[in-house]
Each structure stands twice: as structure tokens, then as C-alpha cells.
Structure to design on (617 residues):
């Protein structure tokens, strides 16, 4: 029998419907790590791929991140058989004279990130980590934590990391300078926008860090600390839940968007943190359903290596999409999803039946992230205004595409010198030499008018593009007004769908249209009356570029644009229905009027994510 990589996924045989199922899932995911603990148990090294930080910090990451799940599992009465490894590891990792010493924190250091997990676990289950330590080991641990917290933490969700260390010190009765705690609590307030939405720092972007970092840590804080900040955090989480639920499809898939997607089911961390904080932001059955359906979505994906260790990647092992701060231990932030194990079996999160998935039955504009959430036959498409991340690899693909899908994810480009072979799913790419290309990286202006998104952007300083995105579920419409002083080649892509072997798929290219049909899915893009003729192309995208499927097909429209003004109009459709080729595909939306769209753009509200950082909208 041919080996099926998904069979190595420890979640595969688990129905993930009950508390005991979730407990089993945690242990099944943790156990593959056991062979990789060092002799002194302070380090977990999973492979030799590197992150930008040193090897000791990467090994600490592999050691510490599972604590996000193990600590609540134990706090809720679960039997974890390896606490001795963790108490030994902490003793040795914080001992400067031990060969497995983690190394001293120095400046903005990855160790700061991992000490948050340690602080959380010390605060939640001190009897497992603190009490077994010798007096000397306790002194070393306290000295290590006190030393680490004196440094400046990154100006984003990292500020919570020092606060978690401080919570642990409080609970252990250790004296320290609390003014630093108050300072960071105050500074975190500067990232808040409105209606439950934050930025993750002074940046022009909003992504999953708002759910699995900002709100996640704030909700844990609200369980440990009773103050005005905690009350504020809880109120904001209630508001955020009303919007964030729209980022999930009926099958539990979330919207792949932004950085750090290798953390995978950490995306359920917000729903899990609501249970931990005993906060019914939505009816408990809905919270439970959103959490467990998301976990179940991962059960048939080849997300681990053959030994069951979580890989870097999303739907499959894929270093191409990773960040420079992803080590082999990074994916274990996924354990944030296991926070509900800290609450007893009599908690309403567990006693309330799951609410069946509610379809998104209407288009929902979200001003703060600059998205229009659109139903698509059980899946969700987010039309996106185009956020900004020029600091990270593939920032344009992760933040600035025109649309993102819970089913089709998105693709990253594998070669900046391959215009003819680019995927360009949900992007408009330009080239002035037929080799290199440019796409939307940021915007000069962004507005939301009702359900219509407008942006103005420049792939080169002397080329200006105005883009309108209009929902027409399950279709969406794109209109681009391009002003260029020279001729350009242009390629615009629809959604990427999975490609099969043996050329079993249907690829159709024609003047003004292209579509592809796979085993389950249809994807197409058609011209709606541009001022230049466009040719359809059914593109076989480079392998391993899409987050969910390793091989994909992307329908595209390609054209040569002359100097001056050009208007491009297109309609895009992707659905899990191969019969759409003779149904929905034959009924594209009407072509919008460009003058009416320009008037509409002037009436819109600015998108919060793209407002100048530090300025409240």
C-alpha cells in the first residue's frame, strides 16, 4: 500500500467532539516530541533547519511551547506523565553552569517569547513546575526571570510576555519592580482601535495575532488578575467575537491570512481562551463549535512528519511559506488551542451541545481589518483592501492580495524573476521586462463604502492603480484603473485549486476567460469589458506555492497595456462544485460603471488597519 502522509497526523483517528477527545489529542500530539528531549531535558531539538535566532533559543522553543497545552491539561485534572522532564529542564536550562543552559536574555531575544509560556505554566500549575525544584534551582529560575524582564520587549504583543512572567512572580511570592508591569499594560492600550480590534503594534496590518495573541493573552490575564484592565479586556473580547466568527467557514476552516500561519490551530486559541476565562462572548454552543470544528478541519491534513512531529507549513510541510523566525519548534504554538482543558467537565463549554455551523448568509463588511466577508457555498471569501507588511518574506502575498479564501488559501511566489510562470492568485502583477514583476505591496489610500472596497496603489512610483472590489456572492468583481507612462505586461489571477496527477483536470483558456476544474472544485476568471483585450490562461502554478494544496491550477487573464490609461474589469468565481461550469459560470455579474465607482470611493470610510499607526480612527 502506498504511504499516505496524512496517516502520520496524530489527530487523524480522533473525532474531537468531547473533552476526553481533546485530552487525548493533546497527549497524542505531545508524545512524538519525547525522543527529542535532551539528556538534561532542557532542550527539544526537532531538526536542523534554522531560524534567525540561536540554536539554544530554538531548542527552548521546542521545550516551552507545548506548555500552552500541557499546563491547562494538568490544571483540569489530566494526567501528564512527564512533568519530571519539565522540572529537570527548567532547573538545568536556568543554571549558568549546566551544559544545557538556555543562555542569558540579551535585548529583544526569542527567549522572551518562550518565557511567557513558562510564566503561564508557573502561574497555573506551580505544584508541577515550582514545588519540585530545589532551593538552588528556584533561585536560578527567579534570577533568570528577573534578568530577562529588565530588557525592552518588542513593541507589539511581546509586551504581554513580560506581564506573564510578572504574573508568575506574583503568584510565587517573589518581589520585583511592578512599575514595569504597569508601563507595559499602559503601552498595550495604544494598540487598541475599536470594536474589539487591535493592531499588533505600530503597524498597518491586522491579522490572526489579534485573536491568538492580543486577545488570547488578555483573556488569560483576566482570569489571573481582577482589575480595570481585565474588565476592559473582557468587554473587548465580546465585541471581537461578533466579527471574528465570520473568519471561519462551515467546515471549521479559518481564513489563511497574514504571517505565522505555521501555528495552524492556534487560530482556535481565541475561542479556547473564552472558555478559560469563563466568558460567554457568544452562546457556549457556538463557541464550542467554532473551536472544535476548527480542530477537526486539521485531522485529515498531512501536517506532521512521519514521526508525528508537527512540520513547518500549513496544509503540508512547506518551508517556503515560513517566516525567518520559524524554527522546528515554532508550530507548537498550536497548543494554545487546548486552553479549554483547564475548565472542568461541568463547565458549559463542555456540557452545552455544539451549535451546528451557521452559514454566512450575507456579506459582512469589517472596517477595521479592511475586509468584506462574503459567503461562498459554506466557505468564506474575504475581499481585502490590501494591508502592509514589507518587513517579512512574501508580505505582499500574506497581506495584500485582493481576496483570501477559507478553502483555497493563498499562494506565495517562488521566483521573483519568473513573470510568465507566476501563480498570481488573487493578484494583479505587472512587468516592464517580461521577467521581473511587481504586485500590490501597500496602498496610498483605502476606503470602504458599504460593501465596496477601494484602494489606490503604485507598483512603481510613476504607475498608479485604482482598484475596486465588489462582492456578488459567490462571485466577486474587480475593477482596476491603471495610469502608466510606459507599456506594461499584466497578469491577473483567480483562486488556486488543487491539481491532480495524470492531467486529469480540465484546463480551459480562451480570449477574455479562463477556468480550471479539479476533482471537487471549479475556479474561473472572466473579463467584463476591459479597454484592452485580455487572453485567458490556465496556469499550472509552481509546486509548493499554495498553503493548502502542494500542486495547484490558477486561471488568469493576461494582457499588454499601452502607456496612458487602461481600465480592467473582471469577475472571479471559485466553488467546490465541478458542475459550476454549466451553471454559475454562465451567469457572471454585470460590469460596473467606472465613473459611479469613483464617486462611491469618495464617500467611503477609511480602513482602520491602513490608518496611520498610532492614530485612533
Amino acid at each position: 500500500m502506498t504511504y499516505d502522509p496524512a496517516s502520520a497526523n496524530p489527530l487523524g483517528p480522533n473525532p474531537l467532539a468531547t473533552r476526553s477527545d481533546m485530552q487525548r489529542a493533546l497527549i497524542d500530539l505531545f508524545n512524538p516530541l519525547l525522543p527529542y528531549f535532551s539528556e538534561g531535558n532542557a532542550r527539544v531539538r526537532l531538526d536542523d533547519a534554522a531560524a534567525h535566532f540561536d540554536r539554544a533559543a530554538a531548542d527552548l522553543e521546542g521545550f516551552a511551547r507545548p506548555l500552552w497545552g500541557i499546563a491547562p491539561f494538568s490544571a483540569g485534572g489530566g494526567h501528564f506523565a512527564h512533568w519530571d522532564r519539565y522540572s529537570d529542564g527548567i532547573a538545568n536550562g536556568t543554571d549558568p553552569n549546566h551544559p544545557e543552559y538556555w543562555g542569558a536574555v540579551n535585548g529583544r531575544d526569542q527567549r522572551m517569547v518562550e518565557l511567557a509560556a513558562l510564566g503561564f505554566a508557573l502561574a497555573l500549575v506551580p505544584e508541577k513546575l515550582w514545588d519540585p525544584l530545589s532551593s538552588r534551582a528556584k533561585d536560578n529560575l527567579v534570577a533568570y526571570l528577573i534578568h530577562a524582564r529588565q530588557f525592552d520587549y518588542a513593541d507589539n504583543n511581546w509586551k504581554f510576555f513580560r506581564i506573564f512572567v510578572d504574573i508568575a512572580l506574583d503568584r510565587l511570592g517573589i518581589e520585583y519592580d511592578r512599575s514595569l508591569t504597569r508601563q507595559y499594560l499602559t503601552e498595550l492600550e495604544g494598540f487598541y482601535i475599536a470594536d474589539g480590534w487591535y493592531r499588533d503594534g505600530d503597524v498597518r496590518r491586522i491579522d490572526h495575532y489579534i485573536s491568538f495573541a492580543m486577545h488570547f493573552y488578555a483573556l488569560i490575564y483576566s482570569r489571573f488578575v481582577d482589575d480595570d484592565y481585565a474588565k476592559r479586556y473582557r468587554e473587548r473580547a465580546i465585541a471581537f467575537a461578533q466579527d471574528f466568527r465570520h473568519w471561519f467557514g462551515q467546515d471549521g476552516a479559518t481564513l489563511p491570512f497574514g504571517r505565522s500561519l505555521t501555528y495552524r490551530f492556534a487560530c482556535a486559541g481565541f475561542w479556547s481562551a473564552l472558555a478559560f476565562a469563563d466568558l460567554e462572548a457568544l452562546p457556549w454552543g457556538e463557541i464550542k463549535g467554532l473551536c472544535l470544528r476548527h480542530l477537526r478541519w486539521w485531522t485529515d491534513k498531512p501536517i506532521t512528519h512521519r514521526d508525528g512531529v508537527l512540520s513547518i507549513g500549513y496544509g503540508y510541510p512547506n518551508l517556503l511559506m515560513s517566516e525567518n523566525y520559524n524554527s522546528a519548534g515554532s508550530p507548537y504554538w498550536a497548543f494554545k488551542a487546548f486552553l479549554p482543558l483547564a475548565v472542568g467537565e461541568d463547565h458549559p463549554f463542555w456540557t452545552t451541545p455544539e451549535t451546528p455551523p451557521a452559514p454566512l448568509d450575507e456579506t459582512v463588511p469589517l472596517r477595521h481589518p479592511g475586509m468584506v466577508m462574503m459567503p461562498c457555498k459554506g466557505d468564506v471569501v474575504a475581499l481585502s483592501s490590501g494591508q502592509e507588511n514589507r518587513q517579512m518574506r512574501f508580505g505582499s502575498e500574506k497581506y495584500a492580495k485582493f481576496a483570501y479564501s477559507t478553502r483555497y488559501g493563498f499562494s506565495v511566489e517562488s521566483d521573483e524573476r519568473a513573470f510568465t510562470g507566476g501563480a498570481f492568485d488573487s493578484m494583479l502583477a505587472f512587468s516592464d521586462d517580461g521577467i521581473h514583476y511587481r504586485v500590490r505591496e501597500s496602498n496610498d489610500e483605502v476606503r470602504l463604502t458599504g460593501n465596496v472596497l477601494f484602494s489606490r496603489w503604485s507598483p512603481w512610483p510613476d504607475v498608479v492603480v485604482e482598484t475596486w472590489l465588489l462582492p456578488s456572492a459567490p462571485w466577486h468583481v474587480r475593477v482596476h484603473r491603471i495610469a502608466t507612462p510606459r507599456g506594461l505586461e499584466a497578469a491577473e489571477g483567480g483562486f488556486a485549486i488543487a491539481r491532480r496527477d495524470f492531467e486529469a483536470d480540465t484546463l480551459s483558456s480562451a480570449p477574455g476567460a479562463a477556468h480550471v476544474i479539479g476533482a471537487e472544485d471549479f475556479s474561473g476568471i472572466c473579463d467584463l469589458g476591459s479597454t484592452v483585450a485580455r487572453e485567458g490562461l490556465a496556469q499550472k502554478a509552481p509546486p509548493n506555492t499554495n498553503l493548502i494544496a502542494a500542486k495547484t491550477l490558477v486561471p488568469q487573464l493576461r494582457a499588454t497595456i499601452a502607456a496612458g490609461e487602461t481600465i480592467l474589469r473582471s469577475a472571479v468565481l471559485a466553488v467546490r462544485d465541478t458542475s459550476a461550469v454549466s451553471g454559475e459560470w454562465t451567469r457572471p455579474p454585470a460590469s460596473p460603471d467606472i465613473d459611479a465607482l469613483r464617486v462611491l470611493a469618495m464617500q467611503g470610510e477609511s480602513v482602520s488597519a491602513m490608518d496611520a499607526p498610532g492614530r485612533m480612527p
Observations:
- The chain has a mean pLDDT of 96.
